[in-house]
Amino acid sequence: MPASGPGDGSPAAVSAIGLRKSYGDKTVLDGIDLRIPAGSVFALLGPNGAGKTTVVKILSTLVTADGGQAQVAGHDLATAPQAVRAAIGVTGQFSAVDGLITGEENMLLMADLHHLPKAEGRRVTAELLARFDLADAARKPASTYSGGMKRRLDIAMTLVGDPRVIFLDEPTTGLDPRSRHTMWQIIRELVTTGVTVFLTTQYLEEADQLADRIAVLHQGTIAAEGTAEQLKRLVPGGHVRLRFTTPATYRSAATTLHDATRHDDDLTLQLPSDGSQRNLRTILDRLDTAHIEADELTVHTPDLDDVFFALTATVPAQHNPPKEATR
After folding, report:
1. pLDDT for 202-246, tens place per residue?
2. According to DSSP H, which parts of 132-244 are helical?
3. Which CATH number fits domain 239-301: 2.60.120, 3.30.70, 3.40.50, 3.30.1460?
4. Which pTM does this prediction carry?
5. Where exactly are the structural domains of the chain?
6. 12-97+145-232, which class in CATH?
């Protein structure tokens, strides 16, 4: 389930109006508006080249927008970039870990960059290495770490400065499923401490699992934004399938549910549905009134794959069939 986060009434950790960015004659961002409540996970989805990393670079002061305005952690990007940098942490697609030194030395170097006193730097380093299950490997060269360990060290280094907003630009790229799930748990734990996480990802399941709100970036604009459930409702094709074991019951149900699509060969009926509890109750009430009971009810709801393909239209819609939940 997505991490529980505050509603839109919470103070904004990140806000942007009309962000624009071009490189030469190529428009990468064509007016981006964002509002991300503090203490939440926000996921930005989009195809390769959609501009996800450009958004992160602008909001983390690494590049300057051509137009628009933004605030991060209460500071204006244009007038207080140093204050923004002091309040954020950034983990990119590629590890910032120096493989020639140990994990502990990487952490201590980051503490020095944040001008922490020596004793404080060592204390923070020890706490974060333990928190990210890296204490046993702390004095080994980081080049010997697995991909998942390097990612954990990357985020641990990001947390040395106690940032309130963390930008994770495709943080699980290249990780195996176990390491990816470990990273998800780390992100969930970060949010419980009040940190705001801005996540870019190409893994739709990742956004579905983690994000309070999701935006889909396509051709320089936000194609859609909302919770995962809200986005899924944008795509048609949701339905309920009812299966019966006896022909007589099936025929009675087909008469009662006259708007259903019949599949006589396997004694099933299919009705359009948004998957909501209210819709399911309406269907079941119609059957109950006629004293008919289905032997199996299956709900099909469009998933984020469907949403992504429908909104971006850059990949043929031939993909794995959406999951169905059987009751």
Report:
1. 888 899 999 999 999 999 999 999 998 888 878 777 889 999 999
2. 147-158, 177-192, 204-210, 228-232
3. 3.30.70
4. 0.76
5. 12-97+145-232, 239-301
6. alpha beta
